[in-house]
Amino acid sequence: MDSDDLLNCTYSVASHSFIRNIYLNLLGWNLLFWVTICFPVNIALLASSFYQTFHATTIYYMIVFEVGSYSLQVTSIQDEQGHISQTRLRVQDVFAMTDSPTKILTQWNRNNQPVGDSSSLLAGFLGQVASNFGNFPVLYESWTQVPEQYKNNVYVNTIQANFFVNDVEHKQYILGSLGKKWKDKRCRLFDKFYNWEQSVEENIENHPPHIPQDHWAIFVRYRRSAKTMEIANKNAANRAKLVIPHDLGSKTLARKRNELEVMHGREFSRAEMYQVSHKKPDGSFINEEARELHEKLQDELQNCSKMKLFESLWERTSGYVRGMGLGVSPSQVIGSSSRATSSTTSFESNERIEQMQAEINSLKAQVAEVDVLKQQIAFLMQRANRDRFRNRRRNHREIDIATVCATVIVTVAKCPRNNGSELNYLSFSDPPTGRGPRDSFPSGVAIFRHPKIGAMTTMLV
Q1: Domain range for residue 313?
Q2: What is the number of domains present in the chain?
Q3: Cα–Cα distance, 382 to 392 (Å, whole number)
């Protein structure tokens, strides 16, 4: 049994912390240190003495796996008020933050790969999430067959609950990393628990304690199929041909490139990163094969175009770009391998895209300004037309009022008729001047009323 066997044991973080505290209180860190130094025996034997008190697998996990969980990483966190602070966290501490509003800030490069101090913490966290087959059961033949519901549930409730990540740019990398770690974990699980000296039925009966038997049965039959065995043998043969390891340790290539670019203030090509990742601290290559391949790469870069060199690399590694790390596809570097035309490196391609995007944003801003001016002009024209219409109506009304006011003063005259009766006539003049009585005006005008405003008007009779 090793630490991998205990990643999926039925225990909670709270119970694990409680047992760990009891263990540390009983022995103390100093006692544990001196016991380990003075008695260099298998630590599992030390754990077996506590078997009657604690569960054996839990004790083993506590001693062996805690070495990794105590690896503290300096990272930035942000609380619910938006305050950012620096702290040191382990992978196990991240799980304890799931119900907390505090989240871990992440840093990403232009290829949407995690970099910075938080990248190693994110990688370790994703490894433990993928190792939990309660999240992604082993019964599926490939990562693409895992239902999207499982992936989205883990992404929202586990990843986004602890890290600041972007759905558009970061989700693809995170799910791809989970898929790779899930596949690798399944391989280790099969190699650990499958006994080739037993039959398939016996292996199904002796399933891992943290894997349901029906899930294990489907997984074992898939691994023992002729097609899967052929692929496994081919992959093992290809792995045996790998004689040039890198010298970066657990640090990703993207993180190393980001550190060099920040330090030197310039970009590093893939050829430079090959030299960095395959050299020892003293400046020498890891082995002779690495040195020969580096010299061959330099000759090819000088004798042929970068485009042809990259296309040849793509033909040997479909969907993967050498020297860029996980999450970068050929389309991100130049386009597609069949119709790439201008860009030669991921930096040049992305710089051109950023420049074009800036130009597009500038044009959009100018168009927006023109639209605003058009709206303002239309508003002013509408307002001018409205004012012109109001002025016209006001002028017509003043003309009507002036017509009525022309007959301000009227007088009533008495005129005899044949029958002796009297008929009232009106007399009018221009506006009064204050001279003479009202009966001094000439007569001969009849009284009428204005049909709209009810004022009196006159007409000659």
Answers
A1: 253-344
A2: 5
A3: 15
